[in-house]
Structures are given as structure tokens and as C-alpha cells.
Amino acid sequence: IQLTQSPSYVSAFVGDTVTITCRASQGPTKYLAWYQQRPGKAPKLLIYAAYTPQSGVPSRFTGSGSGTEFTLTINSLQPEDFASYYCQVLESFGPGTRVDIK
Amino acid sequence: QVLLQESGPTLVKPSETLSLTCTVSGYSVSSGYYWGWIRQPPGRGLEWIASSYHTGNTYYNPSLRSRVTISVDSSQNQFSLKLTSVTAADTAVYYCARHEASYTSGKYFFDFWGLGTLVSVSS
């Protein structure tokens, strides 16, 4: 399975809402997970099974979608949310989306 | 809390074998879950390498299968990775992680990760 993410880069202000899309080359799939990776740190699981939040993840992170197109939405961006985000389906990872401070 | 820690040489010569161990604490590797390795070349994305269950059920990234071996040592609560015939392209941060792989429940993800270890391939 090949995964694409859009955009590859987004610049936003604290308090903004950011939406990241992940598309799978094959589907449908229900095994979609999202990760956050801060610079120099290991990835952190945010969402699995497309929309189920991992324990302890703030409610401003929401996952949605089905079939082959999925979305991660970050509401009210906080300073600690500026990071890279990766989607994953089975053994494949997306190329990542970097969220920077404007 | 499940903690994972990678260990092993940080510099490997071309054509030699990269060997890493992941020590798990806070959870028994024989209590369920797969255990996996993922790598990330500097400035690039994530690549899954291999995963193994404590019973010996293993699966590998097809692009690396011929060079990779993963194994679980329940007595030490560890699992390991061996990658043979390395080249500069294998330079990366290597992460170990707990791997939930349940097709029936729709759960397929890596929920606990080690800090990662940068392995450089250079003469």
C-alpha cells in the first residue's frame, strides 16, 4: 500500500485549525493510524482505527475518514503541536506533513 | 508504563552486520503483542523493517527481507534486529516499538516506542 499525505508542509498560527489528508493506494482500509513526531523525538501514536484517540491524547486531535481517504484535524493549535505528522496503514507509513509556526 | 530502550553499536562498517537489541520494561514480551523495528534516515520518513511475536511468528519488509532477522528473547524480555551487508543507505535512527497487529479488531499500530538510536554506516 502506498500512502500520500497533503499538504507536505503547512505554516499556521497558534489557535488555528489544521487539516492533514492521507490517501491510500488500495482500499478500503480501517487500519489507519496517525503519529506526531517532534524534532529529535520518537513518534507518538495519536489516533488508530481511523478515529479512535490513543489514551491521553488531547481532544483537539480528531481523526476521520473511511475507505482510502482519511483526515487528521488539529483544532486550536498549541505551541507543542508544531511537529511532523505521519499516517500509517498496516506496514506502510506516509511521507509526513510538517506543521510549522507562522 | 511500557518502556523500550534500544542498544547496540552506533557505527558499523559497510558490508558488515548491524545488530541492535531492544530491552522492554513494564510489560512482558511473551504476554502478547508483536514487537517491531522501524527506521528513519536523517531528515526523511519512517520505514517499517520487521515485526515478531514471542512464539517466533515473524514478518519482514519485502524490500529488506533478504538481509533482516528479528527475534524475541522472552527470558531477557528483549528482542533484537540483525541487518546484514549494510551500506550508507542503512544509516538511520532505528526505533523499537510495541506492535499491535489485530486484524479482527481493526487495531494495527505501534503504541510504545523507544527513544531511538542513530546508527551510521561508514568506514
What does this structure look like?
The complex is a heterodimer of chains A (102) and B (123). Helix content of chain A is 0%, strand content 52%. Chain A is built from no helices and eleven strands. Chain A starts with a strand and ends with a strand. By secondary structure, chain A is an all-beta fold. The mean pLDDT of chain A is 96. In chain A, strand 7 and strand 8 form a beta hairpin. In chain A, the strands form two sheets. In chain A, strands 2, 4, 5, 6, 9, 10 and 11 form a seven-stranded mixed beta sheet that branches. Chain A is globular. Chain B is mainly beta and 123 residues long. Chain B contains no helices and eleven strands. In chain B, the strands form two sheets. In chain B, strands 2, 4, 5, 6, 9, 10 and 11 form a seven-stranded mixed beta sheet that branches. Chain B has a four-stranded antiparallel beta sheet with strand order 1-3-8-7, with no helix packed on it. In chain B, strand 9 and strand 10 form a beta hairpin. Chain B is globular, with a radius of gyration of 14 Å. The mean pLDDT of chain B is 95. At the A-B interface, strand 5, strand 9 and strand 10 of A face strand 10 of B.
